[in-house]
Amino acid sequence: MNRTVSEHDGDSPRPVRIAFVMEQHVGHRTYSDNLRQAVSTRDDVEATWVPVDYATSGGWLERIPVTAVQVAVRGRAQVRRGLRGVEFDAALFNTQVPAVLGGRLATRRPYVLCTDVTPLQYDAMALGYSHHADRGGLITRWKHRRNRRVMQGASAHAPWSRWTAASLVADYGVDPRHIEVIPPGVDMERWTPGDRSLDGPMQLLFVGGEFERKGGKVLLEAFAALPEGSAELSIVTRDPVPRQAGVRVYDHLSPNDDELMALYRRSHVFVLPSLWETFGIAAVEAGASGLAIVATTVGGLDELVVEGHTGFHVGIGSVDDLTRRLRELSEAPQLRARLGAAARSRAVTEFDAFVNADRLIRVAIAGAQADR
Question: Are residues 81 and 151 in the same domain?
Answer without folding.
Answer: yes
